[in-house]
Every structure is written in C-alpha cells, then in structure tokens.
Write a structure and sequence with these properties.
Elements lengths: L1 H28 L22 E2 L31 E3 L5 E3 L1 E3 L4 E3 L21 H17 L2 E4 L5 E8 L5 E7 L3 H14 L11 E2 L9 E2 L5 H7 L7 H4 L13 H14 L8 H10 L24 E2 H4 L3 E9 L5 E12 L1 E2 L8 E2 L15 E2 L2 H20 L11
Parallel strand pairs: 1-5
Antiparallel strand pairs: 2-3, 4-5, 6-7, 7-8, 9-10, 11-16, 12-13, 14-15
Length: about 400
C-alpha cells in the first residue's frame, strides 16, 4: 500500500510540473498581446485604432522595416490601412497585407524578409529584475575600482586589487564585459541620462528567504567616482556626463557616445548593430512608446538629433595585438605571430591602407572612413564601430607580460 501511495505521489509531482510548464509557455506566448501591450491592439484615439501587426509584436520574429532617418520611426502607409512596410534582401520596400475585417497587418508566408538577430541582447526579454540585478553588479564594480578608464572599444575599464595564492596583493585591469551589465548601463543612461541611483523604482533587493528582510541595493559612490576616473582618456567634464549633474533625464551627445559603447559590449562580437536592432531594443526597454492612436512618432521615441560623430577622430588610435609575421612576399612565416601596434585609422596614403583599417571595420559606410551622422543611423554605426574594435582586439589579444620576471 505504501509503495502504491509513493508511486501516485510521484505521478502527482510530475503532472504538477508539466501543468506549471504549460501555463508558463502560454503566458510567454501571450506576453504583450493584450490590449495596449506591445503588438496588441491599443485603445481608440483621435485617429482610430492602429492595426495589429505580426512585425510589431516585440516578442515574436522581428524583421527589417522601412523607417524614417532621424529616430527610426516606422513609416506607415496611409493607403494600406496604416500598415508598416518591410524591406527585402534586395532592398525592395513591400507593403504588408492589410485585412480590413480584422484590422490586422501581416507579412505573407515565405516572404523575402530580413530577420533582426539579437544574440546575447536577448537578455532584454527577461523580467526587469534581471537587468536591475546586473546594474547593481556593475555599480559594485565601479565603487570598488581603484581607477576607472576606457579600453579601445569604449568599455569601462576597471583597475582592481586582489590577493594572490601567495597572500601578496596585486592590481589588475578588467573591463566590464558582461552583456547584462552593459545592457543595464545602457538602459539607465538612455532612460535617465546618468548612473546615479538604482535602475528601476525599487531600492531594495528581495531575497528568496521569507525570514530575511529586503537588502538595500548599491548606488554609485559619486565622490569615489570623481577621484578615480582616468582624466588622461577623457576630461572630467565628459566623465561628469555619467553623473546626475546636468539636471535632466534626457541623454546628451556624450551620454550617447557612452551608451554606444555599452551596447557594443552587450552584443555578439560577430554581430552587427543596425538601426532596426536599436529601435526594437529601445521599444522592448520601454524607451520607445506609442502615442494615443497606437503609433510610434517623433515625440514618443528616443531622440537622436544631437548625436554627431566622426570616426576618423574617434578611432584615431592604435591597439597592441598579435598579428601574423609576414615575409617580403606577404606569406606567413612558419605560422608565427608577433606583437605589434595596429592603427585603427590611418591617414598616410603610402601605407597598406588609407582611412579605416579594413580588417577592423568589416562593415563600412557608403561614404567610407570619414562620416558624420546626427541620427539613429549614426548611433548604430558608432556602436557597430565599437563592436568591430572589440571583436578585433579580442581575436588578436596580447596577454600582459608577467611582472615577476627580473
């Protein structure tokens, strides 16, 4: 009898687990599809309801859309039910199919679309507490750093102190390289314009132990930050853009340069930062919203007009990496690698390349190596540039020389 009860108990536990998994799946599938949610049918406004769209469901497949150039707002076709337009692999702009009965815009099955991949950035789809926790980890690192600088790709580079196995203290450098931490830093600045305070509204961490009370979350130690930032790479006035000293929550040009680096560090090194990726990401974070009629417009999305940059100035530097040793004929010598300083940009026309190093900037702009852009396209390009530098230095990494050799 006891054996039978045990078997029934096991089956009860198994069935309970299966039911919970099914319910979780249903909740995920329906996330954002309710009234007013992302991709759902919004409430009525002065211009009528916006059509629902399978391309607008932020928790489904995302494709490249036809967008205006300043802030990436989708271009809606008023002659086709205000549907969005997708772009094919050959660059054609195609209207979605509008069904007036259901008010639904859809992409035909098997259509030639370009999928927007997110890779490591998919962490943005996690519950908000995930990024909030990652933000806390980044802040703890900044508060414990003996120096805060930047690496060649623009990531925050921290000098820390540790104790070796022999009990001797030593210092080392480590960039904030966690995708979650960088994405959390990105969200904080894009939403509030600084790194002070917490990400999110709750200043407490709620632990799983029901007998333990909530823990106060860390915040940036501003006095320490001001003491340890590296003013040899950026002037103090630029570093101060990470603080709440400008008195408003809108990101300025310097904020955007920081966030472009954070976004690059959060994504895949083999990926590609595009306008569609940036827009979708900002929408998932709640930085882009829809108006009362259910459409994105210039007043409801992240504003990029103040962003202005020139690659020839931003990446006028060299990185110390491993490169193949080549003979006079350009052949690889015994598969041997040598350490060398490689220019990211070069203005000497008599060298191998002029302008952008083609081994680094593998996706280039139509204008080439000198570009100035003051819109979301410029932001995506700057972030992609940082990602290319990060990928190149990662693939050609030179380990630091040992310090204990006389």
């Amino acid at each position: 009898m006891k054996q039978i009860l045990k078997q029934r108990m096991r089956w009860f536990v198994v069935l309970t687990v299966i039911i919970i998994m099914l319910l979780s799946t249903i909740m995920i599938v329906n996330a954002g599809k309710g009234p007013g949610g992302p991709g759902g049918k919004p409430g009525k406004g002065g211009g009528g309801d916006a059509p629902t769209s399978d391309a607008g469901d932020l928790y489904g497949d995302l494709v490249v859309l036809n967008r205006e150039e300043v802030n990436g707002v989708p271009i809606y076709n008023p002659d086709n039910g205000m549907c969005e337009q997708y772009i094919t692999s050959t660059g054609d702009i195609v209207d979605m199919i509008y069904d007036p009965d259901s008010g639904h815009c859809s992409i035909p099955e098997g259509a030639d679309t370009i999928e927007v991949g997110f890779g490591r950035l998919n962490v943005v789809r996690s519950p908000s507490q995930v990024l909030e926790s990652k933000f806390d980890e980044a802040i703890l690192g900044l508060n414990a750093a003996e120096k805060i600088s930047l690496d060649a790709s623009g990531r925050l580079l921290l000098t820390k102190r540790a104790v070796g196995p022999d009990g001797v203290e030593y210092t080392y450098e480590k960039a904030i390289d966690s995708p979650g931490e960088n994405l959390a830093l990105y969200k904080k600045i894009m939403s509030e314009g600084h790194l002070e305070g917490n990400l999110g509204d709750d200043p407490y961490q709620h632990v799983g132990d029901p007998l333990a009370g909530p823990l106060l979350r860390p915040v940036l130690n501003v006095a320490h930050f001001n003491e340890v930032v590296d003013q040899s790479v950026l002037p103090m006035g630029t570093w101060n853009n990470l603080l709440n000293s400008n008195g408003n929550g809108s990101p300025n040009e310097h904020d955007l340069l920081f966030t472009a680096s954070f976004l690059a560090a959060a994504g895949d090194k083999t990926g590609h930062v595009t306008v569609d990726m940036v827009f979708y990401l900002n929408s998932m974070m709640g930085l882009n919203t829809k108006n009362a009629n259910g459409f994105y417009d210039q007043t409801t999305v992240v504003d990029f007009p103040m962003f202005d940059v020139d690659r020839s100035q931003r990446h006028d530097k060299s990185v110390y990496v491993l490169v193949p040793e080549l003979n006079a004929n350009g052949a690889w010598v015994n598969q041997h690698w040598v350490e060398a300083g490689v220019e990211l940009m070069n203005t000497n026309r008599w060298t191998t390349y002029e302008g952008s190093n083609p081994e680094v900037f593998i996706w280039d702009t139509a204008e080439g190596w000198v570009y100035i852009s003051n819109n979301i396209g410029g932001f995506a390009q700057v972030s992609d540039d940082n990602q290319r530098v990060l990928a190149y230095t990662h693939d050609h990494f030179v380990p630091p020389a040992p310090t204990d050799i006389p």
